[in-house]
Design a protein that fits this description.
The complex is a heterodimer of chains A (483) and B (400). Helix content of chain A is 24%, strand content 29%. Chain A is an alpha+beta fold and 483 residues long. The chains are: A alpha+beta (483), B alpha/beta (400).
Chain lengths: 483, 400
Amino acid sequence: MRGILALGAHLPHRRLDRRDIAAVAGGGGGRGTRTVAGYDEDATTLAVEAGRTALRPHPDAAPAALWFSTTTPTYADKTNATAVHAALRLPDHAVAADFAGAARSSVVALRAALAGGGPTLVVAADVRPGLPGSPDEAAGGDAAAALLVGEGTDALPVRAELVGAGARTEEFLDRWRTPGDARTRQWEDRFGEQRYVPLGRAALDAALAEAGLEAGDLDRVLVASPHARAARSAGRKLGVAPEVVGDDLGSTVGNPGATQPLLLLVAALEEAAPGDLIALVSLADGADALVFRATDEVAATPSARPVADQVAAGAPVEYPTYLRWRGLLATEPPRRPEPARPSASAAARSAEWKFGYVASEDRTSGAVHMPPARAAMHGGPIDDMEPRPMADATGTVVTSTIDRLAYSPSPPIVFAIVDFDGGGRVPVELTDCDAAEVGIGVRVEMTFRRLFTADGIANYFWKARPVRDADGTVVRAAAAEAG
Amino acid sequence: MGSHGIRDRVAIVGMGCTPFAEHFDKGLDDLMVEATTEALDGAGITRADADAWWVGTAQSGMSGIMLAKALQLEGAPVTRVENMCATGSEALRAASYAVASGAYDLAVAVGVEKVKDSGYQGLNAFPIPTDGTNRTLTAAAMFSMVLPAYAERYGVDPDQLRRVAARIASKNHANGAKNPKAQFRREMSVDAICDMPAVAGQLGVFDCAGVADGAAAAVVCRAEDAHRYTDSPLFVKALSLVAGNGSGLIDPSYDYTTFPEIEAAGADAYAQAGITDPRGELALAEVHDCFTPTELVLMEDLGFSARGEAWTDCEKGTFDLDGELPVNPDGGLKSFGHPVGASGLRMMYEAWLQLRREAPAERQVATVDAGRTLALTHNLGGYPGEMVSFVGIVGTEPSA
């Protein structure tokens, strides 16, 4: 049986209150919040975090393919999925490819994965663009979602099987964006609505027919679309009861483009009961409908970071800060030399460290070397080390500082010396925190980020972020442990 | 295997030092010519008399040609050395060892840096192609992490410790105010220093050494020849250098309240010089006060204070100009600024003046009059956890 084996999502730490927009932009806004990717996040780093969440409970999953979908890729010409592949430490024989550019690409990647092949990780991530005051800015959202698709095994059983699929493809102009543009343009609203709703209905009917089901059998219907009006209208006209239509997370997360269908599916599966029938309807350049049946295993491995918990977490970001992060508000750079571009050959040599955060452990003393080294720190043989993955390690701040002089895309830099549980130390930049929250004893975990961009090269590496309680409070080690 | 040193085999017989300043009107060559001319004149020699040259610069020039061209040295062996901010001391060490080896009779060490031509404030290392994973923190931030660690380990109130750091800066400003070659010649109160906005951690701008252009130079000969050049030579008692293996950055046993490279270089230097009680035997110490927490920790690493007590010693004035052991009587990096390649030799220049009683009366240390004949210079490069450290000791008297 082929279906969904594992899943996970990632929402950035920051939230923009839409009411803050009008005061600066002169219009726009609305109610609720939207997620905001940090200045050090992009579609690639968001995808890594979602992929880690999905794969972490299943270290032996070994995907044979990675399909990465985004409307906001970091690179053209160069494959973006390879950085995700490297950070997730997927096998080198695994294919990694982009399904990039269009909102529809994520559903298509999922369909391709469901159609066959080995275990396939489908990841979607978006940092939605939009000019200040625009509907896209207010309604957009930044997020990532990941689904591991494959044949079930005893170790990794299917949690939701595909029971029916339908699609409709039509060429018409609804939304478009020239690559590199900060805004998406949209045709008149009613036109798209009138095209999309029947397409969605037809696709869903086809999927239900394939599954031998009626619309009334569905326990949950998820409608995703960059066209908000069409999605709302479709929800009412698909022939299902209103209470069956799932929350589109628009009031809390916003619409994260290509990520939306996958994010809604992840959230629904995290809350599904065995036997539940879930339909995903995506309206983008046509329509796609996928009907899943949750198996008895649907709750076998509860997510460590459920979407609902992530929606409830987070911290506010001020609107001008958001604009600065997006490059929509130009501010004076620090009067320091900008960082130099990373060396391609040096980065290739250290890919296991730079992307996978794999240190080395001295076999004699057990000392952990970060970055990996050939010679042990306090003598002993050379080249007697073994790889020591550290991306999932947690640690404690030994001492810390705030650097108001160093170059950063969003100064000041919060920086700490971190000792990891079980060995290993790094001096490391902190992210997703306010400077005042950090000090000796703060517990941290690692996250994959973009440090800076130089010469068009995104310099990816790892940072630490505070571990937080459910209410957002930074977790601190007991005094004895911190010493 | 051992560090035997070259105690009393080499003497410094001439020194020179430019004012350290924003020398927008002077080039690298001007600075080298000025410092070298003063040093050669002091020793009563000409350029042609020197047998070999070492020029220390971190990034203002490449190879010995930079000095050979500036001074038009023809057919001379000239070597450029670099060891981060300890570069000036490294030049002196190379010249001294060359003379001690018997290879040359007279050698000259020159240290120089032109940092103000970068257009930036602060020091900036030139970019080396890397994988992009190296940290990009400023030195100020790296050294600022000492204060919370020290406060935590010794149970010192962080606000009180912050004032101790400011007192170190205030002391060095007061000393520098009495030095015509210092860049900053204004006294600064502890309150004024504490009131400055933070630039890194608890450190304000006045907790950081200034940035300046400058050069300094020393003429070195065999000890037995010293009195041919000057009546009052300084005998080299110890030159010690330790390059850290960087383990502090990756070893959880390192706690950021000490700099092991400095402790090791100090212990080696004291062994070379035969010193057992540095606080009681030295007339003065010129130390690398790049940031105020650095000088605090140095007092313990160099054995001037017991562990955990440097902060109270600083508060008590032990290291003031009129204290038990004057530290940075010339004003230190704090008042001079830090032309990287020149600073180590600038420190030695103060030892030269003080031990020979040539410092201006208002900052001449009383310890020399009291009969102490030894001075220490300490010069470091790098960061906590990963540094090079130099300790030199000179004295006016050859050993009995």
